[in-house]
Amino acid sequence: METMKAVGLFRYLPIEDKESLLDLEIEKPSPKGRDLLIKVKAISVNPVDTKVRKPKEKTEEIAKILGWDVAGIVEEVGSGSSLFKEGDEVYYAGSITRQGGNSEYHLVDEQLVGNKPSSLSFAEAAALPLTALTAWEGLFERLAIAKEGNRDKTILIIGAAGGVGSIAIQLAKWAGLKVIGTASRPDSVRWVKERGADYVINHHHSFLTQLKELDLDEVDYIFCLNQTGQHWENMSEAIKPQGKICSIYETNEKLNLFPLFQKSATFVWEFMFTRARFETPDMIEQHHILNAVAKLIDSKTIESTVNKVISPINAENIRKAHAELEAGTAIGKIVLEDF
């Protein structure tokens, strides 16, 4: 049996516990069907990693491997694969229902994989897939924003300094929108402005009051990337009649939809793993989106959102990255490279 290095867990523990993530040797998989076997060169961490790992009364007999952002090289293709060949450089987020990419080699359905931007290193590319897919689907599919002709349209991006926000600002500007991002610390405000936001407001204060100070009475679109319940009243006030709100942040709180009624306003969710989880007929759209993003990167229209690169990929370093995400202080993306 051929083995490989991986970082995984058997118990769901606080990140301070050294057993929350472990260095492991596990069996190297083989691709079948439309799967690709990827030699992993770099990964990045996302809030979903910490949510899956968070403490709960459950144990795993087979190690659970996290990690849903990978850049690497196609090592081997399954018999049903037609989109890639051995040696291709790729990037992708993969599927939440399968083992993640925190391992030397990783299996992924080719329909979820894109060609890595040729102008980026593996580390720079690993920062992009999950957040770029989330931002693209949220903006252009859920909010149904046109990719051009938005000169008079405004979008408010809540939590704009995070991974999704960092790429969503750039995509929204590419589409011609006026972008208002939210951030609350000097370093995050600076990051949001550097990504291209026209204005920055503080998400700890009234949105509408701050918008009026910018001579904006309301916004056409809101993309909520943080604490849906916490920001719901502010969003309901700030959205324009017939406007649209999209959130990626799940909540168990009951949301009062009535304020949206007279405005005929839309509220919609975006969950990047929907296509992979349910194997929807249009699953290959993620292949197309990643390739479109790669073209925007290589044409210098948008840029990678990596803000920190750590090496090597091991349990200790991934625990540090999880701790930073859980503290809520991360700006841009944290990437790890090389086993």
Automatic annotation (TrEMBL):
Family: Belongs to the zinc-containing alcohol dehydrogenase family. Quinone oxidoreductase subfamily.
Species in which this protein is naturally found: Halalkalibacter akibai (strain ATCC 43226 / DSM 21942 / CIP 109018 / JCM 9157 / 1139) (Bacillus akibai)
Start and end residues of each Enoyl reductase (ER) domain: 19-336
Major location (coarse): cytoplasm
Database matches in InterPro entries: ADH-like_C, ADH-like_N, ADH_Zn_typ-1, ER, GroES-like_sf, NAD(P)-bd_dom_sf, Quin_OxRdtase/zeta-crystal_CS, Zinc-ADH_QOR/CCCR
Record GO terms (molecular function): oxidoreductase activity; RNA binding; zinc ion binding
Location relative to the cell: Cytoplasm
Protein name: Zinc-type alcohol dehydrogenase-like protein
GO cellular component, one term: cytoplasm
Pfam family, one: ADH_N
PROSITE patterns from the UniProt entry: QOR_ZETA_CRYSTAL
SMART domains to which the protein is assigned, alphabetical: PKS_ER
Quaternary organization: Homotetramer.
Keywords associated with the record: Acetylation, Cytoplasm, Metal-binding, NADP, Oxidoreductase, RNA-binding, Zinc
SUPFAM superfamilies the record matches: GroES-like, NAD(P)-binding Rossmann-fold domains
